[in-house]
Amino acid sequence: MNESTEYGFSRREFLAGTSMLGAATLFGLPRTAAAEPPPETTSIRLVKNPGICLAPQYLAEELLRLEG
């Protein structure tokens, strides 16, 4: 087995695939983008519980603050 087909595709197939990807970006194929609706819950209350592991609670609190 030669090196070019060792990973399942040849160099020629790889270049054909990347050129198709480049053509698709060049032509600017339509992309649908939609914003997510605002969350239904506007506020939550986090309880400080002295448990075994507080890391998930700290992480969730920071992520929720960043999200708004």
Class from helix and strand fractions: mainly alpha
Order of helices and strands: HH
- The parts where pLDDT drops under 50 for at least 5 residues are none
What fraction strand? under 5%
What is the end-to-end distance?
A: 56 Å
Percent helix:
40-55%
| Number of separate helices | 2
The residue-averaged pLDDT reads: 75
Number of strands: 0
Envelope shape: elongated
For the biggest sheet, the summary is: none
Work out the radius of gyration: 24 Å
Provide a quick synopsis of the model.
Helix content is 44%, strand content 0%. With 68 residues, it is an all-alpha fold.
Structural overview:
This protein has helices at residues 11-27, 55-67. The N and C termini lie far apart (56 Å). The longest helix is centred in the N-terminal third of the chain and has 17 residues, at 11-27. It is 44% helix and 0% strand. By secondary structure, it is mostly helical.
Question: Layout of helices and strands, plus pairs?
Answer:
Blueprint lengths: L10 H17 L27 H13 L1
Question: What brief labels describe this structure?
Answer:
68 residues; single chain; mainly alpha
